[in-house]
Amino acid sequence: MSALFDLTGRVALVTGSSRGIGSSLARALADAGATVVLNGVTPERLKEAETALAAHFPPGRITSIAFDVTDGDAAARSIAWIEENVGPLEILVNNAGIQHRVPMLDLDVADWERVISTDLTSAFLVGREAARHMIPRGRGKIINICSVQTDLARPTIAPYVAAKGGLRNLTRAMTAEWAASGLQINGIAPGYIHTEMTQNLVDDEQFNSWILGRTPAHRWGTPQDLAGPVVWLASAGSDFVNGQTIFIDGGMTVVV
Ligand code: NDP
């Protein structure tokens, strides 16, 4: 492996990594040498994910901590625990997210707020806590998992579209405040990726053929498609990349 992309000795936290995209990103970071902390809200599922991933690596390389990313106090306690028990946190992937499908006229405020807090406020809370430890050391990488919905808007997912658009701009705001302290904060905007979150869309024949037609690569993405870009953004290979959001979408956002 090129030394540019070698993450040996780096501690990484991937939120929402008990399954789906987060789980794949955690594996990729560990494959590049990082010591990885998994996260989710469901302790049993998280433990299972930790056991499965740890089987591929030497002891101590994979650990986990369950906390709700919308809870700022829990984020602070969890990152303090990582710093004390695993090592200095150098890579944070803000990946945890949810979706709620309902037309806006039927959307109640509690569901609006639940999506905004899980998909946007969480990145501020966990990112701020990570930055409090990274800034004094003068180094750190934060990667925010956005979506093509930062640029495009599908009907029935208004809070998701608003949150992901906000997350792209939060990536810029973090850069404005923290880049001078040696941090790189960037975003990844995935296209349609086959995971539990999108299983119902894959199963919907009409939607599925719309996606295939709308995506120049003519296929759904896989979590693995995001691994290379995230390892690069976590590595020294991207040290002068600041505040960008990179679209990994099979070309969806560049064609009409
Ligand atoms: P999944 O639904 O498969 O997984 C979501 C993960 O987030 C789980 O690990 C879940 O943990 C965790 N999570 C949810 N809420 C919280 C919370 N409050 N605190 C901590 N962890 C939480 O989603 P995907 O893998 O598909 O998506 C991951 C990210 O990628 C999301 O931000 C999503 O918006 C984004 N994305 C996904 C796309 C897709 O097509 N799939 C496309 C573009 C972006 P638990 O298991 O405990 O519930």
UniProtKB/TrEMBL annotation:
The signal sequence is none
Instruction: Report the GO molecular function annotations.
Output: oxidoreductase activity
User: Which intervals hold domain Ketoreductase?
Assistant: 10-191
Q: Which UniProt keywords apply?
A: Oxidoreductase
Which family does the record assign? Belongs to the short-chain dehydrogenases/reductases (SDR) family.
Name under which the protein is recorded: Gluconate 5-dehydrogenase
What species is this protein from?
Pseudarthrobacter enclensis
